[in-house]
Amino acid sequence: MTEQELASRCAQGDNAARKELYLTYGPRMRALCRRYAASAADAEDLLQEAFIKIFRVIGRYKWTRPGSLYSWMTRVTLNMAIDSAKIRRRMNHELTDMEALADAPADEPQYEDTASITSEALHAMIEDLPEACRTVFKLYCLDNYSHKEIASLLGIKENSSSSMLAKARAALTRSIKKYLEKKK
User: Fold this and answer.
1) Which of 153, 171, 176, 179 has the most CB atoms within 10 Å of its CB?
2) What is the pLDDT of residues 155-176, one digit of tens each?
3) Of 54, 83, 112, which residue constitutes the final position of a domain?
4) Mean per-residue pLDDT for 16-44?
5) What is the CATH number of the domain that holds 74?
6) How far is CA 109 from CA 7, 33, 113, in A?
7) Does 77 share its domain with 22?
């Protein structure tokens, strides 16, 4: 079944098509939810809410090219994750308190030094970032959104997105240096 047919049948309430949509895109959507949720349980809740919304509004989806259904579903899910009241409140609070993070150190660790860092340790470092910086970092570095797109998604200025990314990178650099010093 093509994306167009799948979306059309889902919009008509066809449960077999909805199941196929979930089985086809569920794992990738779950991974996306996991990046923006505080825990695995929160990610599962977000995934469920995302699919409920997707099924409710899929009639608005317009096919443009192969892969556009997944792109559209990703946008719906990201908007839900970012629009949650908790994230908005924390981000607005952090925007006023961003001066606590210093600018990036000039001497970033070399790749050879960082190759020994486990993915679990790096993930923990990213999760320790202030929520606003972490969200911008993930949108920019993991999901390949531009600062203009991030600003639009989060309701902030483009310069704020760029600044938060720089502060996230600076904080990660400090965390990596501390991690490497402990390993010596």
Assistant:
1) 171
2) 888 898 999 999 999 999 899 8
3) 83
4) 91
5) 1.10.1740.10
6) 47, 30, 6
7) yes
pLDDT digits (tens, 9 = 90+) for 51-66: 999 999 999 999 889 8
User: What is the CATH number for 134?
Assistant: 1.10.10.10
Nearest to 95 by CA among 153, 37, 163: 163
From the CB of residue 184, how many other CB atoms can be counted at a distance below 10 Å? Answer: 4
Between helix 68-83 and helix 15-36 the angle, nearest 10°, is 50
Question: Of 25, 51, 83, which one is at a domain's C-terminal end?
Answer: 83
The answer to whether residue 23 scores a pLDDT higher than 70 is yes
Give the helix/strand (H/E) hosting 13. Answer: none
Helix (H) or strand (E) holding 160: helix 158-183
Q: Are 104 and 135 in the same domain?
A: yes
pLDDT of residue 144: 87
Q: Domain range spanning residue 102?
A: 85-183
Buried b (16+ CB within 10 A) or exposed e, 96-129: eeeeebeebeeeeeeeeeeeebeeeeeeebbeeb
Distance CA(155)–CA(59), nearest Å, equals 26
Q: Considering its fold, how many domains does the chain have in total?
A: 2
Which amino acid makes up residue 148?
A: K
